[in-house]
Each structure stands twice: as C-alpha cells, then as structure tokens.
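Acetate kinase
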Amino acid sequence: MIVLVLNCGSSSVKYQLLDMIDENQNNVMAVGLIERIGLADGMLTHKPAGKEKYKVTQPINDHVVGINLILKALVDEEHGVIKNIKEIQAVGHRVAHGGELFKSSVLVDEKVKKGIADLIELAPLHNPANLKGIEAMEALLPGIPQVAVFDTSFHQSMPACSYLYPIPYEYYQKYGIRRYGFHGTSHKYVAQKACNLLGMNFNNSKIITCHLGNGASITAINNGKSVDTSMGFTPVDGLMMGTRSGSVDAGVLLYLAEKENMDLQGINDLVNKKSGVKGISGLTSDMRDLEIAAQEGNERAQLAIDMYYYRILKFIGGFAATLGGVDLIIFTGGVGENDCALREFIGTHLAFMGVHFDSDANRGVRGQDKVLSKEISRVKVMVCTTNEELVIATDTMNLVKN
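Predicted structure tokens:
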C-alpha cells in the first residue's frame, strides 16, 4: 500500500511517500518539505529516492496550493516516483491534539473532523493546520481514505493522579485542563523498537523514553502504557528546551507580568520563544552551537547546558521512583540521537540506579540504534532512532486495510 504522510504546520508541510509492504517492510519513496505558505516566496524541497533533490520557489497561497505542489512533484516525469496520483492509496496525518476524544488513531470522517476542530482551543497553533491538510486532500483527491494519528493518544493511559493539576477540579470539568503530553508516536515507537532489538517484552517492562530535540519530553512507560510524561496541558511544560522554558513557577510569570507590563501574548512569547537554552545563554537554541561556545569559555553557554542536563536527570529519577524501578532508558530525537556528551553525562550520573554506562560504545554514535550500557548493567541504556512518519504510515495502512 502506497501511503502519503503529511505533517502540516501553520506555514509548512512535511511529507513522506512510503510503500508499505507490511508492518516490518517499507520503502521510503520520497521525502520533502513545503515552506513559507502564504508568502510570495514559498518553497518546495522534494527528495525522491535515488534521485537528486529538487526545489521550486513560487507563491504558495494556502495548504491546498502547497499540497497540490507536492502531488505534482510526486508524478513529475523527471523528479517523480509514481506515474499517476491515484497510485496513492491512503493519506496519514499527524494531528497534534486529540484531547480525551481520541485514544488511538482513527479513520477520518465528518465526526472526526469536528472533533479535531473542537480541540483547536487546546492546540491553536497546530490543530487548525492539521485540519487544513485533511481538507486539502479531500479537495485534491476526493474519496481517498485518510487517517488521523494523534500526538496525545499514547498518553491517554495515564492515571488521574498523574494527569490532573492541583487546581480546582471544576476547571478540568469545564475546560479539560489536565496533562495531555505530546511526542506520543515517538515515545511508543522507540520503546517498541528497542524492546524488539533487545529481545524484551514491551508489555512487561518498565521503560523511560527521552525524546530530546528543540522540543523535548520524557515519558514513563509501564507494561506498554504511558503512565506519566513531562509535557502537560501544552508542550511548554516539563523539560527545559530550545526556546521553551519548561516547568516554571507560575508566580514568576505573574510577577513579570506586573513588573514588565506584559500582556498574555507577551507571557506566551516569553515561555515559548524567548526561554530555554536560548534564553539562558543569550546565544542560540541549538545544542551543537552551545557546546562549541562552552568549549570556548562562554560561561552562560555552559550554564544553559548544565541546566538542560540537570532537568533531564531530575525527570528520569522521578519517573524511576514512580515506576518502582527501570529496565530500559532510551535516548531519541535530534539531540538524543546525536549528542554523545549529553548521553555520557546522563548515563554516568545514573550509576546509583544500577546503570553501568559504556563510554566507549557511546563515543561517536550519531543517528543509529545502539546499546550504551555494559553487560553487567542492571538497567539497559540505548540510543534509538525515531521515525514518526513510519508510525503514521503503519497506523494508516492497518486502519485502511481493516
């Protein structure tokens, strides 16, 4: 089954075309990105398998125009990978927020579209764009089966003591204010993948997954189910990130609002765009650049790195306590898969838990699956590459077939 996977942002669309033979066999036929939707200098970057990268710059007024450009690239005589657009048998969409409505991936119908629209309040930057992608495909390929895969659905197994905030219960009842968690497709995928590689039973293991990138979250998985996660009602909660603050005393925000005369938009920009390692270092949100600056003696760059590492350790330790022990710790995401220094620091500081970290195995490992703990280690540690597009394509294939 040929599946098109779309990840629609407010002004961008990431995509992959995959030939899904079965759950274990697939071929990536093309990957690409639409950028700057709504601007005169919109851009398509298209990379077909086995061919040169192809770029187009033109006005892209909306998501329909952008996705139509993707479809044209896929069937282009020179740069395409299929002969006819009807070869695409299904479309899978990443949808940021499923709230409490969607506990798993679903075939899209009018009821599902309404549900995604009803949740726009909880994800005003993401759900509208995700819905636009679904509607664009309906216009361009009417009748094609579409599947929505939700970032939040894996975390719907969390118990109330984990997902509720200690504020008046009525706000949960009235507005659905609770911890939802994100990166669910990634956390579930790498946990299952690592268990398969290690010969462990995913449904009988205690696992902590660390999805570390510009956005970052950690999840506690007990016997195949998410029982806690660091991101909350929004993706700003939890870990310190590239530009997001992570968990911060709400009183600080009230104080700053008064002292700096900030409105709600100002506070939103502060915690989402001006904080994290960029806010502390005053330099960048990129961990690679921070490490170079720290090596050159920049003290604030080093402070940002120290704070970033510290909070990861704190969440791992806390989740280990709530799980009652850990069998496996996994690093994934752009930073987790490529930052050897981070993994070295975290791994060696978990010796008290029975982790025997293998520094030699860790050295130089970037973007590959590898065990990073020694044979005698009571807790296994692994770096595992994530593939959210494959999760979406697999769920799409299974739902459409069944």
